[in-house]
Design brief:
Length: 252
């Protein structure tokens, strides 16, 4: 249960009389400590991903895709109950790679902030590193890793999950989803202006700035002038004449 949204992160308020670590007492992993820790990491990742995707509009399909994929790690890790093997690790790593791709897409479309992307990618990377280091080294199978190894990791894992959730920013203002959406919105506006201007020039073959402004009433003369200069500099259109006799045409 999210208690409050704050810029520094999020605090999770436990229900009265219920321990957050109660799930540990219901463990199907037996003596397989490595898989138990991996599963708890996967739980933390799913929780963190859900918190971040709360900021994505419900109409965006990537919101549910990310949630489904983060949940999908749970049964994959649960299948490692008998030991973390190379084949099962490969499956988990491939699945995690898909999640990272979805995070990149969500970030590129302005739905995830730079900070939250970095936090989640680091956490998923830590999960993969743990699986790789634990492959074929399960103490339940060969005893290669002592009790101290798992005790230290278990303590560190509780801190890691807590820090991952704490570092997530749940505000879509100020330092939440801030720079990226503005950047994406600006790029879309520029692209729309260019398309509109080029459409007029293409239809007329050669156009004066007044020809363009009369057909594109949404933009002022100065805005159109700046965009025309940019298009000329980019080599997309060419400028002929000077001052009021200046015409613009598509570079062939």
């Amino acid at each position: 249960m999210i208690n409050k949204y704050i810029n520094k992160g999020v605090s999770i308020k436990p229900y009265k009389g219920i321990m957050l670590d109660a799930n540990i007492e219901v463990s199907p992993f037996g003596e397989n400590r490595a898989t138990e820790i991996a599963y708890r990491k996967a739980e933390g990742l799913a929780t963190a991903t859900y918190l971040v995707t709360n900021l994505i509009p419900q109409t965006e399909t990537i919101r549910e895709n990310l949630r489904e994929h983060s949940q999908g790690l749970l049964p994959i890790v649960m299948d490692m109950r008998e030991g973390i093997r190379f084949s099962s690790t490969r499956k988990a790593v491939a699945h995690t790679r898909q999640i990272l791709s979805l995070l990149d897409i969500a970030h590129a479309s302005g739905n995830i902030s730079n900070m939250n992307l970095e936090v989640l990618k680091h956490a998923y990377g830590d999960f993969v590193r743990f699986l790789n280091s634990s492959t074929n080294k399960d103490s339940a199978q060969n005893g290669d890793l002592g009790e101290d190894y798992f005790t230290n990791i278990s303590k560190g894992q509780r801190i890691a999950i807590k820090d991952t959730i704490k570092d997530i920013n749940l505000k879509d203002t100020e330092s939440g989803i801030d720079e990226r959406p503005k950047s994406v919105k600006f790029k879309r506006q520029v692209a729309n202006r260019r398309v509109a201007i080029l459409d007029v020039i293409t239809k007329k073959g050669s156009a004066h700035i007044k020809d363009i402004s009369s057909e594109i009433s949404d933009y002022g003369i100065k805005t159109i002038q700046r965009e025309l200069s940019s298009l000329v500099n980019d080599g997309i259109i060419k400028k002929e004449g000077s001052k009021r006799w200046t015409t613009y045409s598509i570079v062939i």
